[in-house]
Write a structure and sequence with these properties.
The complex is a heterodimer of chains A (343) and B (650). Chain A is of the alpha/beta class and 343 residues long. Chain A is built from 17 helices and 13 strands. In chain A, the strands form three sheets. Chain A has a six-stranded mixed sheet, with helices on both faces. In chain A, strands 2-1-4-5 form a four-stranded antiparallel sheet. In chain A, 42% of the residues are buried. With 650 residues, chain B is mostly helical. The chains are: A alpha/beta (343), B mainly alpha (650).
Chain lengths: 343, 650
């Protein structure tokens, strides 16, 4: 994940309250817990010391419970909320140094955002909502209508372009929000808990929709959610936040296989591990008595997908990468993961 | 349940209040009749004479002092020009013609067309019908004068109010700054600033328009700001995230989304303006209000009724049209295809009507037709005569019950107490109910009241105000609880209350003058009827606002209906009760003063006399100040006695 990061965040702080800038500057204040800081200074630290990089084409998920600062964080990235200190570098440009005009330009061309409560304009038809971003950047009517119809088609709303938002279901309204975000052809899409207000079945549909769109248009996405299964389903990498602070950042199987602390462990406890962990996490070193002529599998195969093969083999399966033997997996390891679900 | 440890160790508030009142009566018995600071109607104090002198000095310097030459006179000239222009268009002979530019046919056509364009065909018909009715009543010119004044005031109000409202919607700082100013403008009884305004702008349409402006601009500012502020945050955030400029956000998101609330503000501004324009007849504003006042002063119920009815009809027309317009302003589906050609066609018809009314006398001057106005006056007169003859046992009974049972003892207690006793009682009540700050305000108000030289008149007005407010609260709680608990009752009563609230204050005096003739009681009844709708609606909303879960839990615990009301719904609606009392008080106070016209006497009479008699001008001004002082004092005591806020400055 090194190389050219699209977004690079360094030591980002957002403190609400009186004279917020003194908090990140002072080593003493910045070491306090949220509660102590509130009692001492009356300030609330919503985001503290957050650093991460997002690679091109990656789906980067920020996950945390309510109050963990994740929504504030995503707003700091586009400066809908002004960060208190730190650095947000987008394609090599420090966003925090951008003037109002440059910032508007970035918002018009480079980023766009999908909101939890959609933020649609009720007095405009779907097509005019979708083309709204193009309208405010000065595109002509014919051009923006043409482009709007393209993305309406892309998100599966064709036939509804002349409806008004209140005539659509929640899921369809969010498709409009998605289409509006895609219409400007931005480099990065930000999602702020876009599906939290939807019911579970629609939510699943929309998640698949995002996966499909990601496959088709290949945009970089930063996705905020409080739902771990959503994070695991969508995220290439996941950043877990607690009380404004990053707790752990890694791929789904890293979080489940090697939780950084009890908080993360508690979080991932109910995840069906067989669906997330790969063989890398359960393999063991070969023992002298192992029969070493079993089939071979890669280390990144998910346990659930490997189970049938391992159980059918009747002997240890070799985990091999680049023809190097990393370890072996037997019935015992597979069953250990599969049966512990729900424990 | 055992009595839990109560946080307050001193005796409860009701006990203290009762103790203060008992002590008052105990001291009153030996001390009544002394130090009452009486002043007979024709007497003046040095303050009043000094105010007269100020008035004379200003009158003498009006055309020489630079403040007047370059500021007040300019404003007056500009406002006068606007009013005169509208009057030339629709009500007064103008441009060397014996008739206004637009005759009745043109005005009716324009009103109907505009109503149709901003609202719908139904209210357009209502508007046309209403305006023709003015003509049939024989009040065409008076109605048009009232309309002209209202339009002028509304135009200026909106010109000032909407931009300020947008500013207050966008800027927290400005919002904080302007809210108390608007509160003050709205709580001051309307009448009070008429006198100071005449000092600056003379008696006449300019003062009337400016007074109306003061009263009518707050709703425009408030509702515009409220509309802008209640635009859903996500919509604003979304548009910002797409890179909209401040102007784009305002014109493409904030204004369209708050359009409905802003139109509602226009509605309230128009209704406030109409109400005030009629009252401004006291300072010689032309129109229907003048007809009503003249008739009230000569106790000519028939004429007052005819003109009052015209005011009601105008209020209904303006209210219905603007309410329908605000409903149309809701974002909705596409415009029907036939609307545009229809608009063009009707526009041509309207233009033809205007031309006809410009050219032909029959379309310019409303024909002397069946004389509906005379018939209405005579009908009202005969109904009044019948009611006074036949219902007198009932009406006199009610009147005597309230007058002798409630008003007289109360008035005796207040008026005959030495001033220091009333002052001490007010101070003690303020201290018990409101705390130190309320007591300080009360002390200052009592001191200033004595300074106005109108202590005894103030006490008479106070007695009427308190009696009327008590009646308002009884009505408010009984009807409010009923409406709050019963959706069916709510659905039937609420429209009646809404209609009642859109009526200009004056109109209420007419029927009660007919029933009860000119007495203090008439003023009290009119005040109760004027103030009750507000109180009832606030109580009803408070009771309705009690969380359904809590009510359900109390019902599940086996509460009877009475227990549910007294132990759950009323206590939880405590803040609403306090607000209802406060608002009721303000409304009553402003109406009790209007009651000065129909025999309520005291401060109201002083104010009215001040407008008409030069040597009483200063006294009228002082009376206006006394009303404001009473209002502030009562407001402080009543506001802080809200049960939900036991500590001050929280």
């Amino acid at each position: 994940m090194t190389g050219e990061a699209v977004i690079s965040v360094r030591d980002l702080w957002k403190v609400f309250g009186h004279k917020p800038e003194r908090v990140p500057r002072s080593a003493e204040l910045s070491a306090l817990s949220r509660r102590e800081l509130l009692d001492r200074t009356g300030c609330t630290a919503a985001v503290r010391e957050v650093s991460f990089d997002v690679a091109p084409g990656e789906v980067f998920v920020v996950m945390g419970l309510s109050g963990s600062g994740k929504s504030t964080l995503v707003r700091c990235l586009t400066r809908l909320i002004e960060p208190t200190s730190g650095e947000v570098v987008f394609e090599g440009e420090d966003i925090l140094a951008a003037g109002p005009k440059r910032l508007r330009e970035l918002r018009r061309r480079k980023f766009s955002m999908v909101f939890q409560h959609f933020g649609l304009l009720p007095f405009r038809q779907v097509v005019d909502n979708v083309s709204y971003g193009l309208e405010i950047r000065g595109a002509g009517r014919a051009e923006r209508t043409r482009r709007a119809m393209e993305v309406i088609d892309l998100v599966g709303l064709d036939g509804y372009e002349h409806s008004y938002p209140d005539q659509l279901s929640g899921g369809m309204q969010q498709r409009v929000g998605l289409a509006r975000a895609l219409a400007g052809d931005p480099d990065v899409l930000f999602f702020d808990e876009p599906f939290s207000a939807l019911d579970p079945l629609i939510r699943r549909d929309m998640q698949h929709e995002v996966i499909r769109l990601h496959r088709e248009v290949g945009k970089t996405m930063v996705f905020i959610t409080h739902d771990l299964s959503e994070a695991l389903k969508l995220g290439d990498r996941i950043l877990i936040m607690r009380d404004g602070k990053p707790v752990q950042c890694g791929t789904g199987d890293e979080l489940v296989g090697a939780p950084a602390d009890d908080y993360v462990r508690d979080f991932v406890r109910d995840v069906p591990r067989a669906n997330v962990l790969t063989l890398r996490w359960i393999m063991r070193q070969p023992r002298p008595d192992d029969v070493m002529d079993g089939p071979e599998l890669g280390p990144d195969v998910i346990v659930r997908d490997a189970a049938r093969a391992v159980l059918a083999a009747g002997k240890p399966v070799k985990v091999v990468k680049d023809s190097e033997l990393l370890g072996v997996v037997t019935d015992a390891e597979i069953l250990g993961v599969v049966t512990e679900a729900g424990a | 349940m055992a009595a839990p440890s109560r946080p307050r160790r001193r005796p409860g508030r009701p006990v203290l209040v009762a103790a203060v009142l008992l002590l008052w009566v105990a001291v009153w018995i030996p001390a009544h009749g002394v130090h009452t600071l009486g002043l007979s109607p024709a007497d003046l104090t040095p303050l009043h004479r000094w105010l007269n002198d100020v008035n004379d000095t200003i009158g003498a310097n009006r055309n020489s002092s630079p403040v007047f030459l370059y500021f007040f006179n300019e404003i007056r000239a500009a406002v006068d020009a606007l009013v005169t222009f509208i009057q030339d268009l629709i009500s007064q002979p103008s441009f060397g013609r014996p008739v206004p530019v637009l005759g009745w046919l043109g005005v009716v056509a324009v009103v109907a067309y505009v109503s149709w364009a901003v609202a719908n065909a139904k209210v357009a018909l209502l508007a046309a019908g209403g305006f023709v009715f003015f003509g049939l009543q024989g009040l065409w010119q008076e109605s048009m004068d009232t309309l002209a004044l209202t339009l002028a005031a509304v135009a200026i109000s909106l010109l000032i109010g909407i931009p300020l409202g947008v500013w207050a919607g966008l800027s927290d700082r400005f919002h904080r700054l302007i809210t108390p100013v608007l509160d003050f403008m709205q709580t001051m009884p309307t009448f009070v600033y008429l006198a100071p305004l005449t000092l600056l702008f003379l008696i006449g349409p300019a003062s009337a328009t400016i007074a109306t402006l003061i009263y009518a601009v707050p709703p425009a500012i408030r509702l515009t700001a409220h509309g802008i502020r209640s635009v859903p945050r996500p919509a604003v955030e979304a548009t910002e995230s797409l890179g909209a400029t401040g102007r784009q956000t305002l014109t493409k998101v904030l204004l369209p989304l708050s359009k409905r609330t802003i139109v509602l503000g226009v509605n309230q501004t128009i209704m406030a303006a109409l109400s005030m324009v009629t009252i401004a007849a006291l300072i010689d504003a032309p129109g229907l209000g003048k007809t009503v006042i003249k008739a009230l002063q000569t106790l000519d119920v028939g004429t007052a009724f005819n003109a009052g009815l015209a005011i009601v009809v105008m209020a209904i027309v303006l209210d219905r049209v603007t309410t329908a317009a605000s409903e149309r302003a809701r974002p909705s589906g596409p415009v029907p295809r036939f609307r545009r050609p229809l608009a063009g066609g009707l526009g041509v018809v309207t233009a033809v009507c205007c031309y006809l009314s410009y050219t032909y006398v029959w379309a310019a001057e409303f024909p002397d037709g069946p004389g509906l106005g005379g018939a209405l006056s005579r009908g009202a007169d005969s109904v009044t005569a019948w009611a006074q003859a036949e219902l007198s046992t009932v009406t006199e009974g009610i009147k005597d019950l309230i007058t002798y049972g409630l008003l007289n003892p109360f008035q005796a207690l207040l008026v005959e107490s030495p001033w220091w006793l009333v002052g001490a009682v007010a101070l003690a009540l303020a201290g018990v109910l409101g705390g130190v700050r309320a007591a300080v305000v009360t002390a200052v108000c009592v001191g200033l009241l004595i300074g106005t030289g109108l202590w005894q008149d103030s006490m008479t007005t106070l007695a009427m105000t308190i009696v009327a407010t008590m009646l308002v609260m009884v009505l408010g709680v009984v009807v409010g609880v009923w409406m709050g608990r019963n959706r069916y009752a709510d659905r039937i009563i609420r429209p009646v209350l809404d209609a009642g609230q859109t009526m200009p204050a004056f109109v209420y005096l007419v029927p009660f003058l007919a029933l009860f003739s000119a007495t203090r009681f008439t003023a009290i009844v009119a005040a109760v009827v004027f103030a009750a709708p507000v109180a009832i609606k606030i109580v009803a909303d408070g009771v309705r606002g009690v969380s359904a879960t809590t009510v359900e839990a109390a019902t599940a615990a086996g509460s009877s209906t009475w227990q549910l009301i007294t132990k759950v719904q009323l206590p939880m609606a405590g803040a609403s009760l306090a607000l209802a009392a406060n608002q009721g008080l303000i409304y009553v106070l402003s109406m009790v003063v209007v009651g000065g016209l129909v025999g309520a006497g005291a401060l109201g009479y002083d104010v009215v006399a001040g407008f008409s008699q030069g040597q009483l001008y200063g006294k009228g001004l002082a009376a206006g100040a006394a009303i404001v002082l009473l209002g502030i004092m009562l407001d402080r005591i009543a506001r802080t006695s809200s049960p939900s806020k036991t500590t001050e400055g929280n």
